[in-house]
Amino acid sequence: MNINTMRQRQSRPSVARVYSYVLGGRDHYGVDKDVGDYFKGDLPGSDQLAITNRHAVRRAVSSMAKQGIRQFIDIGCGLPDPDNSDVHQVAREQHADAHIVYVDNDPFVAGHGRALLAVDSGIAFVEADASKPEAIREHEDVKRLINFDEPVGILFAAVLSFLEDDEDPSGVVRYWTEQVPTDSLIYISHFRSGETREAIATERKIIDAFGRGRLRPIKEIEALFGDLEPLDTPTVRPCAEWRPDDTMEPHKLTDFETMVVAGIARKR
Predict the structure, then answer these.
(1) Cβ neighbours of 75 (radius 10 Å)
(2) Which of 96, 205, 236, 257 is most exposed, with the fewest beta carbons within 10 Å of its own?
(3) CB-based contacts of 166: which residues, under 8 Å, 6+ apart?
């Protein structure tokens, strides 16, 4: 990466770096901190969007692994989790030989991930855009690590929220559905639109800060699963109460906690 490109990337916030900052990570620039501090200070409680989303991903991976999934593609993975609970760590609690491909379009994320995990031949970081699934599928590391004759776990953790309608997020999910065999599992979390002051302010800030994406209503989020078989009723629910485990205490959700929803479905 040349110096001008690096300066350009440092001058605008990154979804992955802001997300990492909110979660307590150290890999961010000042512009990312500014956005994160806005959410923390001007919209107190909105940091729960990142926190509950991340926790739900862990539960999704654990659930997939317990159902026999041994290979995962995490599309829009972001930076490594500061709590050391990334997809490979959770999956390998069940399957020590699990293979994981992380995908992100941010060179900072991909470079950082490769540096951390270079010694592990069962893990790869691919620099690619979620809206171009064919390029991901044909990447040499995907071909090396993922056996598409065996069930695959595909993770879309909030990343579809940052695809425009003309980038066809439904088509992206459909592409991967067509690539994987029966009994593969697809997890989607997504920011949902709302009419409260908090929801409107959060959506405006997300779009202003990152320059792309759309918070979608529940029906549109559910439609992303296409012909897949939802494993829960309703198909999606807030991440803060999705498939709770014994570390979660029941509580009344804040408006912010209702703004990111999750669901999982199976290819029949």
Answers:
(1) 24
(2) 96
(3) none
pLDDT in tens, the chain (268 residues): 444 444 455 567 888 888 788 888 877 888 888 888 888 887 777 778 888 999 999 999 999 999 999 999 999 998 877 666 799 999 999 999 999 999 999 888 888 888 877 778 999 999 999 999 999 999 999 999 999 999 999 999 999 999 999 999 999 999 999 999 999 999 999 999 887 877 788 788 888 888 788 899 999 999 999 999 999 999 999 999 999 988 787 888 888 888 899 999 999 9
CA angle 94, 237, 260 (to 5 degrees): 90
DSSP secondary structure code for residue 23 in this structure: T
Could you identify the residue written with the tokens 């909110």? Answer: 22
